[in-house]
């Protein structure tokens, strides 16, 4: 496995975000493998660009591009009063006063020297997925962690994953004592659909390869 350049690793480690180094390197390895398909690498959940840096480095090396999707207003748990709130990421304009991670993301990517390897899409993931029409080499799901959001990301993006492409899901915790269950539930759905085979795990990061079959649509109810 190749490693990110030292400057890129340093940029990753100094970026704000929620991706530990070992999981980041596993994401980078998956992205490097997926990039061989020559298709874009898609991330849901840019936040401040920590994981995007590693997707961008793999895309650069593989001659493809990373696409990253976020409305930049933060997930539920990042809002004021919640566990993962960072007050420095609130827009200082009193007429806005909402989370805004876009400026920090842009600064992070610029400093990492990877701007040319990323297309950033600002908006709600399911709305962008509904407009999407290009096969993807990798889908990395790290957006909203409620059932509503995780399921919408799974349903919206996995149909665009090319056969042989990789689905990567972050924060998969089989034991509810370790964390929320929505990412675990979409991981289970992926496996039960028969459309994916599992590759080695790194802590809460799961990597699944898509076979020729189409992932199942959500069940009603
Ligand atoms: C856990 S953070 C992503 C962390 C990032 N991947 C990292 O490595 O640091 C989740 C992000 O998903 C975004 N998000 C949540 N729900 C979303 C949705 N429905 N559409 C677009 N972005 C969403 C939030 O704004 C937040 O920035």
UniProtKB/TrEMBL annotation:
Protein name listed in UniProt: Class I SAM-dependent methyltransferase
Molecular function as annotated in GO: methyltransferase activity
Keywords per UniProt: Methyltransferase, Transferase
The organism of origin for this protein: Streptomyces humicola
Keyword hit for Repeat: no
Gene3D superfamilies: Vaccinia Virus protein VP39
GO biological process, one term: methylation
Keyword Iron: no
Source organism, top-level taxon: Bacteria
Alphabetical list of InterPro entries matching this protein: SAM-dependent_MTases_sf (IPR029063)
Signal peptide: none
Residues forming coiled coils: none
């Amino acid at each position: 496995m190749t490693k990110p350049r030292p400057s890129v690793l340093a940029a990753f480690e100094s970026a704000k975000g929620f991706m530990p180094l070992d999981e980041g390197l596993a994401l980078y390895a998956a992205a490097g493998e997926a990039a061989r398909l020559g298709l874009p690498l898609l991330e849901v959940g840019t936040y401040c660009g920590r994981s995007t840096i590693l997707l961008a480095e793999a895309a650069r090396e593989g001659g493809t591009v990373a696409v990253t999707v976020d409305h930049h207003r933060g997930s539920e748990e990042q809002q004021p009063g919640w566990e993962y709130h960072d007050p420095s990421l609130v827009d200082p304009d009193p007429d806005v006063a909402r989370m805004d991670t876009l400026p920090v993301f842009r600064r992070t990517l610029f400093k990492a020297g990877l701007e040319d390897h990323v297309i950033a899409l600002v908006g709600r993931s399911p709305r962008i997925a509904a407009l999407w029409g290009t096969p993807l080499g990798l889908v990395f799901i790290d957006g909203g962690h409620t059932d509503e959001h995780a399921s919408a990301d799974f349903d919206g993006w996995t149909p665009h994953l090319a056969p042989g492409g990789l689905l990567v899901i972050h924060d998969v915790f089989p034991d509810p004592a370790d964390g929320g269950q929505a990412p675990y539930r979409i991981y289970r759905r992926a496996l039960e659909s028969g459309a994916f085979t599992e590759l080695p795990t790194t802590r809460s990061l799961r990597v699944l390869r898509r076979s020729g079959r189409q992932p199942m649509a959500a069940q009603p109810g």
